[in-house]
Design goal:
about 55% helix; 7 strands; alpha+beta; three-stranded mixed β-sheet; 3 domains; about 290 residues; Immunoglobulin-like
């Protein structure tokens, strides 16, 4: 019987501890009640406005066990409805060779949502959004997308263009230089043709002068070597004129078709021609 008071003391202590816990819990729940009710009301307004992501956060607050049971039940039901209609997108990025890019930062309407791509879905409110993808070594890519209510796991993949290396001209400047190479080739080719025609004219006129001199001085008993020399120059003048004409025509063709020539690489030409027997630019020959 000497131990009975101690047992009563232990029981009293346990009773006081439980009582304090209950009172504290009720006090805590009483303090949570205004916050729960406010979160519930705010969630309703956000849900009606289509701001489902924010509504989901508020519903998580008012759906806690600390909130009044009626508020908790309503918020849990609304949470299920919001999750059912909250859209989501799966973000992806590739390079020009079709390989996945992992180290890419993505912003939605100016707010960063991820620093890398891992294939997981990202919840997005319904409506029009601007997605911006950024990665090192390439220009940023922006896509304006209409996200539909209830749309789940929509695949959104962009392709990054290869950026210019350090010290390298931008792609637009490189195209300009390439486009300008064809007219230069046309001018050079045409210039060679004109020079060849000029040389052929000079040789032909020189041969004609020697031929007239032979007629006046020794025809018809001129030495064969003298006659052969004049005839050879007529042949040279004819071949040179043919090649010059071909080069001039090729230059004109290159000038008017330089865009296609650059793209296909067909900026070469093959001169052609044939010698004219006993004739040059004048197209006449003679016999001694």
């Amino acid at each position: 019987m000497r131990f009975m008071p101690r047992r009563h003391g232990v029981s009293l202590f346990i009773f006081l501890v439980v009582l304090l816990d209950v009172v504290g819990l009720r006090t805590a729940r009483a303090d949570e009640k205004p916050q729960c009710v406010a979160a519930s009301e705010k969630a309703q307004k956000l849900r009606i406005a289509g701001r489902l992501s924010e509504a989901r956060a508020e519903l998580a607050t008012c759906g806690r066990i600390e909130c009044p049971k009626l508020v908790q039940q309503d918020c849990s039901e609304w949470m299920r409805e919001v999750l059912a209609i909250l859209p989501s997108v799966v973000l992806g990025a590739k390079d020009q060779d079709g390989r996945d890019i992992v180290d890419a930062k993505v912003s939605i309407d100016g707010k960063v949502v991820t620093e890398s791509l891992d294939g997981k879905a990202v919840a997005v409110d319904p409506g029009v959004h601007l997605f911006r993808f950024e990665t090192q070594g390439a220009p940023a890519v922006e896509e304006k997308v209409v996200v539909r209510q209830g749309e789940k796991n929509r695949i959104l993949t962009v392709t990054f263009a290869t950026g210019p290396a350090e010290g390298e001209a931008p792609s637009g400047m490189k195209h300009s230089k390439q486009d300008g190479s064809a007219p230069i080739a046309a001018f050079v080719t045409g210039g060679i043709g004109l020079a060849a025609l000029g040389a052929a004219l000079y040789i032909d006129l020189d041969a004609n002068a020697d031929a007239r001199n032979l007629r006046k001085t020794c025809a018809p008993s001129c030495e064969q070597s003298q006659v052969d020399d004049v005839e050879n120059r007529y042949v040279i003048a004819g071949v040179t004129a043919a090649l010059g004409g071909a080069a001039l025509i090729a230059g004109v063709v290159l000038f008017f078709t330089h865009d296609r020539a650059v793209k296909s690489g067909a900026s070469r030409f093959m001169p052609f021609g044939r010698s004219l027997s006993h004739g040059g630019l004048a197209g006449a020959g003679f016999q001694f």
